[in-house]
């Protein structure tokens, strides 16, 4: 079984084989229509054996922005039908990447890593993108869902990393050359251990930034910049939260999921404003994952989170899903279990968006 790759300027059979993780001789054998494999022409179609393609998304590494960006570029090179866009930029100027899967009328939006120390969900979403693309290219199903049918009926937007600056801080720590070095150390109580850090580079908790009871969240939270719990000077004051909200307003998803850790629960309501179908969808998510649906989240006081705002603003199904168990940041040893629990959710969500 093969997928089609369109030759780009500078491509050679050797480079294509290396990019897709196949043997050069297997690639040449799959393309008898190419009379001279040493002379490729831009625009020419090369058939790549899909079954031999090596995986791209590196689920075994601490998933920094740089790792994610490299994986995204490799996915773009392998799958010509994949589309990407930039929704905005972080405080430090990193691109807030959004991947588009499919082109159907139903629209779902999935995001992860509002909180920096919950970054394990970023490779979960990126691996979903890769498996979706591989299944589409091969014309096969994924977890019982026919991917080509899904692509024709639904569009899935995936923002794998809402808070790339914070993720980098949690994983790599800080050095004197960092532009916010003194502020971040002070806000982190002069500790170089940033494993508990949730916020962005302004010390603002991005999941307390949305205009749904923001005033209450601000009064109940930290009074100023902190590792977590500070709602900022106003709703959407931060470039990351504003970009997520703007993307949502412009693309009008019928269903949205914000991924967090931990607890293996599904929050589906906000002040009893969720549409009638939300609870049923949450229980269907339970079928795929084993996670517990919960209509009210007392730990967050039901205010200012992305899910809260989405339900309030659009009256459509919105969910916060807390993956995994333990203490954040969750270890990568939980990745396989988390991914298996959420693959069905990510596919089913698009069918009811």
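Q: What amino acid sequence fits the structure above?
A:
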């Amino acid at each position: 079984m093969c997928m089609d790759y369109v030759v780009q300027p500078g491509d050679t059979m050797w480079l294509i084989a290396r990019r897709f993780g196949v043997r050069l001789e297997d690639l040449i054998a799959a393309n008898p229509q190419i009379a001279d494999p040493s002379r490729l022409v831009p625009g020419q179609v090369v058939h790549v054996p899909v079954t031999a393609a090596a995986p791209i998304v590196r689920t075994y590494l601490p998933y920094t922005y740089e790792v994610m960006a490299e994986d995204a570029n490799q996915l773009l090179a392998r799958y010509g039908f994949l589309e990407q866009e930039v929704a905005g930029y972080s405080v430090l100027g990193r691109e807030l990447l959004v991947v588009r899967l499919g082109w159907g009328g139903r629209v779902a939006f999935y995001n992860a890593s509002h909180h920096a120390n919950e970054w394990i969900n970023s490779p979960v979403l990126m691996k979903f993108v890769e498996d979706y693309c591989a299944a589409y290219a091969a014309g096969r199903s994924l977890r019982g869902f026919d991917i080509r049918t899904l692509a024709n009926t639904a569009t899935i937007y995936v923002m794998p990393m809402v808070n790339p600056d914070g993720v980098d801080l949690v994983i790599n720590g800080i050095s004197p050359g960092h532009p916010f070095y003194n502020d971040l150390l002070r806000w982190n109580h002069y500790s170089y251990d940033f494993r508990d850090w949730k916020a962005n580079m302004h010390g603002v908790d991005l999941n307390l930034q949305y205009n749904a009871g923001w005033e209450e969240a601000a009064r109940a939270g930290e009074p100023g910049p902190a590792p977590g719990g500070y709602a900022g000077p106003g709703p959407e004051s931060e470039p990351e939260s504003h970009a997520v909200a703007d993307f949502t307003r412009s693309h009008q998803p019928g269903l949205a999921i914000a991924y967090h850790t931990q607890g293996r629960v599904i929050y589906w309501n906000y002040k009893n404003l969720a549409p009638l179908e939300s609870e049923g969808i949450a229980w269907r998510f339970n079928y795929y994952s084993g996670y517990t649906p919960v209509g009210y989240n007392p730990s967050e006081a039901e205010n200012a989170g992305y899910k809260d705002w989405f339900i309030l603003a659009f009256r459509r199904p919105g969910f916060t899903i807390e993956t995994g168990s333990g203490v954040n940041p969750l270890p990568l040893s939980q990745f396989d279990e988390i991914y298996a629990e959420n693959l069905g959710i990510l596919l089913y969500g698009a069918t009811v968006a």
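Q: And what stands out in the fold?
A: The mean pLDDT is 94.
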